[in-house]
Amino acid sequence: MGVTFEYGKEKDIWCILNYGKGSLNSSQQTKIYQQMVDLYGENPKTETVANFIDDYLIINHINIQKNILQHQTDWDMIAQEYQRRAERIFGVVLPNDVTAYLTINNRSPYSIQEHWFFVGAAGSSPRKTIMHELWHFYTWYKYGVVWEEKIGKQKYNDIKEALTVLLNEECKDLLPEGVIDSGYPQHQELRHKISDIWRKEKDMDKLWDFLVNKEY
Description:
By secondary structure, the protein is an alpha/beta fold. Helix content is about 55%, strand content about 10%. The relative contact order is 0.13.
């Protein structure tokens, strides 16, 4: 399994229009979407978003092609070690390569079925986002295929988001210095419980059994 970075304006437009207003885990607009609405008003057209992206990249001195190379180099430094740890923890191997699309948006949606996720176009290191999103991929191939239907999409979503707290337990040294996976406010109690259980016994199957039987 490998991660390859790409950029397409159509993808960036889609990300902003579909995940700028809000998402399953947050009803807040992203900062980028707010900036665009402040300039052009609500419900912008595709052409308006495209122009906003062009202006944003110029004003903020973002060189997409340069950042693609930087992101790829930064990720490749830890990719094999991250994959080794994730495969050991979950006991599964991701069956496909994954594409990381750059976006100026402040939200990173993903599609396991189509093998992609989004990552910020700017910044020196995309590691936290990549590690977080791929953790969802591992969770899906280990449990989600069967369990999402059994426990429902909302409960499955809460569990898979909370499980990323384990990145701070098992992959802290792979994250950028001073960076942690903090998660969403509504999942903090569950994240603390997961950490407590994991520190006592690092067994993903036992942890999963607890989580699917817990009432939320």
